[in-house]
Structure formats: C-alpha cells, structure tokens
Design goal:
CATH architecture of the largest domain in chain A: 2-Layer Sandwich
Number of strands of chain A: 20
Strand order of the largest sheet of chain A: 11-12-13-10-4-14
Helix content of chain A: 10-25%
Shape of chain B: globular
Distance between the termini of chain B: 15 Å
CATH class of chain B: Mainly Beta
Oligomer: heterodimer
Structural class of chain B: alpha+beta
Order of helices and strands of chain B: EEEHEEEEEHHEH
Helix content of chain B: 10-25%
Largest interface: A-B, 21 and 14 residues
Number of strands of chain B: 9
CATH architecture of chain B: Beta Barrel
CATH topology of chain B: OB fold (Dihydrolipoamide Acetyltransferase, E2P)
CATH superfamily of the largest domain in chain A: Probable tRNA modification gtpase trme, domain 1
Number of helices of chain B: 4
Number of helices of chain A: 8
Shape of chain A: globular
Structural class of chain A: alpha+beta
Largest sheet of chain B: 6 strands, antiparallel
CATH class of the largest domain in chain A: Alpha Beta
Radius of gyration of chain B: 14 Å
Largest sheet of chain A: 6 strands, mixed
Strand order of the largest sheet of chain B: 1-2-3-9-8-5
Strand content of chain A: 25-35%
CATH superfamily of chain B: RNA polymerase II/Efflux pump adaptor protein, barrel-sandwich hybrid domain
Number of domains of chain A: 3
Order of helices and strands of chain A: EHEEHEEHEEEHEEHEEEHEHHEEEEEE
C-alpha cells in the first residue's frame, strides 16, 4: 500500500460497516457497494424506498455579484434562467467541448450558488474552475463540510411527511429548500438518480449518523433499505442517466451524449462552445444510445465490443443486467448511421455474439 | 462460513467432491457470498477435456464476471443445467443444488495440491472484512 493515497471515508462509514455493507473503493472513497444485495436494493427503490449515502459527492459554494456571470462562462446550461431556490443540471466542459463533469447547480440566494459535483472529479473540477476564477466571485470547496443522502422510491413521498411530521411541503421539481428541523439544518431538493420520486438532503457532516438513522427508523414502516453504489448504477442505467467516467468523458461532448437540452448555445460565450456550435452545424459522428439484449445472455459490461454485421462499431460505455427488465442493458457511442431505434447489433461477450437492439430512452418506464 | 468437512478446496475458492472416478465441482459458500447475487453461469460443454487449473466456467454477478478453474484434470461428463434458468442456486445452495459441473478423472490424476477443509478455513479467515 505504498504511494497511492488511502481512500477517504464519508461520515457514515461506521454506519455502513455496522449494517454489514460490502465496502469498495470508488473515486477515491470507501463506499458501500451493497448491503442486502444489489437486486434486492434495486427492487426496494422501484417498489418501496431506499436510502443512499451520497456524502462522497463534492460541494462548491459560489458567491458574489459576479457569481452568475462567472458560472455562465464555465457551465453549458443558462444560469440566468435559474430562480432563487431552483436547480439545474449542467456540464463543465474543456476547451474542446469534452465533458469534465456533469453537475447540479442550485441557486440558494440571490448571489449564492451551490454546485454538487461527482466525487471522483471534485478536485479536478475545483482546480479547473479556480484557475479561471474572475473577480467579483468567491469560490469555496465545501465538500468535507457536507453529508448527503438520497432517499428514493415511490414510498419516499410518505416518508418525507413522516420525517418532517407534515410540517414542510415537498420541494417541487428543480426546487431547493432550506429547512431547519430538530435534527439539523437541511438543504433539500427533489433531485435523484433513479427515475423514482425522491429527495436529496445535504446537511452538516457532524449530523450524518443521526439523520441517517432517523431516516432508517422512520422509513421502516415503508420497507426502507439502505442501498449501495451497485443498485445506484443499475437504477440509473435503466433510466439511461449518464455516469461520468463511463458515459461521459473528455472525448465526448454533451451533444454526442444526446444531452443537448442542458446546453444553451444561445449563450454568447462558454468554455467549449465553439466545438459544440461546429458539431451542431456539421452533425455529430457518434451518439450515445441505449440498447437491450434480445435474449438471455451474460450481462453486457463496459468495454465489450459492439458489432454491426462483421464490423466492430463501438465498445460498451455502461452495461449491466437490468433487475427490473431481467435482461442485459447498456449504452454505447455508436456511429450516427446506426444510432436509430430498432437497429439490430451484436455484443461480443468472450468471443461469442449475442443479439441486441437499440432502443429509446429510458429503458425502464414507470408502469 | 460453511466449509463442509467432506470436500476438498482450491485457493481460488472452488470445492471438489470425489465419488469414485467422478468429481463434482462448485464454488464455496465464501465465494458465493463475496461474489453476491449470481445472475448468469457459463458452463463448459460435456465432452470437453480440461486441464487442472484451467478456466472452464464463468460465474457472473451484477458487478463482475469471475472465472472458475477446474480443480483437477479430466473430461466434463455433466453440467448443472438448472443453473441456466436459476443461477441463484449457486448462492442459496453452493454445495448442493448449486454445483457447476462433473468430471471423469483419469486414474492417478493428482489431487494432492488441493486444500483440506482446515487449510481452506485458515485461508478465508484471513481475508479482509472490506474486500469484495
């Protein structure tokens, strides 16, 4: 164990170990990959409610009279359109239009923004932004100050009311609320990464175990399960939500990822804009598309080759067994000519070909 | 973790049950617990001739695909077809209904490299609590 820094722990590390979680390293963090089992946790979120530790995610605070203008120069979506108390999904791009990170920006006050970024990218994002900081904006990395929980699933609605004793209404879509309760001070939003109703909470790290345990206690009557990164991945992939590092990378733009609705090309300037304008005029060469296996097969996994007839056309970006559909699913950047719904392709798994079909997003729809 | 006394084991977490010239192979309780929910099992073909420690099967969880090595050389005479529709048998009954394949072994085939139950228990007792 020489050289490599040891993984960081979230303030809930001991709670995870107490619950018998399997811990893995993810993005420089010790994180629970599962407790009762990925499939069990996945179904808990689809049918009841689950809670995830998302304290590893990074939080930056941006303040000042020029905060909005500065963020608008670095982010693809339009911060001008963000009301106080609202949030927006957006990208941080490099000069070539490739994705450094995908993140959510919340406007907490007139001149104050909270950015929630991917754990593995926190330091890189911060350095990139810091290097481009402009006067009139203050920029702080507050990642270690915050713990975060994602409570997700159809029963999260009732759990919300039980948790707050009916004293607070749920945040609407894209809304962020600040709530003072007996336990702590919470920032709460209705965001998530599962496709289910749910809410995400951020609060001071010192209160983490207390809030986690109250959520589990109050969630017991709704069948709550603690959920790990394994279920988080299968849930998000069924919804075709991208994972940075797999589906998003500096080699692909948000247009290639099919996420242009989070890019405002009407803005006159932002980092990476030139490439995107050119791409939009010329058309993208590859597109990220979801696919599903036609029959039972080994689970498709990242980097497995994809074929059209005898020609390799791509490799899988994300792939897994879908616990809801009980069949292999995935996403890949395929040449635009094949990026069509119902296009038939093959996945090469250990030298054998298994048929798959390109589908539309999302792969799972609520019944 | 359950480590039955009547089986032999490998360092790579397979078990072997000898009955005359036939050996039945599966993965251990420890292995299934570490691998978590088994969702797919790829088995060798009946008639395949396999060498000791050759990768002959693949057991897949949601997160990973793991090679399974034959503890001994021989000819595959039977595979557990029930795993095709119910791979979770490997989790629920790793030493019984979750067996993987059977080999006919040649007379004099070496088995002394395998571990006795006590040695295997010793091996897995040292494995880290947070390992996957």
């Amino acid at each position: 164990m020489s050289g490599a820094p040891s993984p960081k722990t979230t303030p809930l590390f001991h709670e995870h170990v107490k619950l018998g979680a399997k811990m893995v390293e993810f993005g420089g963090w010790h994180m629970p990959v599962q407790y009762s089992g990925i499939i069990d946790e996945h179904h808990a979120v689809r049918n009841a409610v689950g809670v995830f530790d998302i304290s590893h995610m990074g939080q930056f605070v941006v303040r000042g009279p020029k905060a909005k203008e500065w963020l608008n120069l670095l982010l693809t979506n339009n911060v001008e359109r963000l009301e106080v108390g609202a949030s927006q999904y957006t990208f941080l791009l490099n000069e070539n239009g490739g994705v450094i990170d995908d993140l959510i920006v919340y406007r907490c006050a007139d001149e104050e923004y909270l950015l929630v970024v991917n754990a593995a990218k926190t330091e890189e994002d911060f350095a990139w932004m810091q290097a481009r900081l402009e006067s009139g904006a203050e920029f702080e990395n507050r990642s270690t100050d915050f713990a975060g929980l994602a409570v997700q699933g159809p029963k999260s609605v009732k759990l919300y009311d039980t948790f707050f004793g009916g004293r607070h209404s749920r945040p609407t879509r894209n809304e962020i609320k600040r709530i003072e309760c007996d336990l702590t001070t919470l920032l709460i939003s209705s965001t998530g990464y599962t496709g289910e109703d749910g809410f995400e909470l951020f609060f001071p790290a010192r209160d983490a175990a207390k809030v986690w345990n109250v959520i589990l206690e109050k969630g017991a009557e709704f069948g709550i399960k603690p959920c790990g990164l394994g279920a988080r991945d299968t849930l998000r992939l069924e919804m075709c939500y991208p994972l940075n590092g797999s589906d998003l990378s500096p080699n692909h733009t948000p247009l290639e990822a099919g996420l242009s609705i989070f890019v405002d090309l009407q803005k006159e300037r932002f980092v990476g804009r030139d490439t995107l304008v050119k791409q939009r005029a010329e058309g993208v060469k590859r597109r990220l598309v979801p696919f599903r296996m036609k029959d039972k097969s080994p689970p498709p996994r990242p980097h497995y080759p994809l074929f059209k007839d005898d020609k390799q056309i791509a490799e899988i970006a994300s792939g897994t067994l879908s616990p809801t559909l009980n069949i292999g699913i995935g996403m890949a950047y395929v040449p635009t000519e094949f990026a069509r719904i119902n296009e038939e392709i093959d996945v090469d798994i250990r030298g054998r070909r298994f048929p798959a079909v390109i589908e539309k997003k999302p792969l799972h729809r609520k019944s | 973790m359950n480590v039955p006394d009547d089986l032999q084991y490998t360092e790579t977490h397979e078990w072997l049950r000898m009955e005359g010239e036939t050996a039945t192979v599966g993965i251990t309780d420890h292995a299934q617990a570490e691998l978590t929910d088994i969702v797919y099992v790829e088995l060798p073909k009946v008639g395949d001739l396999v060498a000791p420690r050759q990768a002959v099967a693949v057991v897949e969880s949601v997160k990973a695909a793991s090679d399974i090595y034959s503890p001994i050389g021989g000819t595959i005479v039977e595979v557990n077809a029930a795993l095709e529709s119910n791979p979770a048998l490997v989790n629920t009954d790793p030493y019984g209904e979750g067996w993987l394949f059977r080999l006919r072994i040649e007379a004099g085939e070496q088995v002394e490299l395998l571990k006795e139950p006590a040695q295997y228990r010793e091996q897995i007792s040292g494995s880290g609590k947070y390992e996957v």
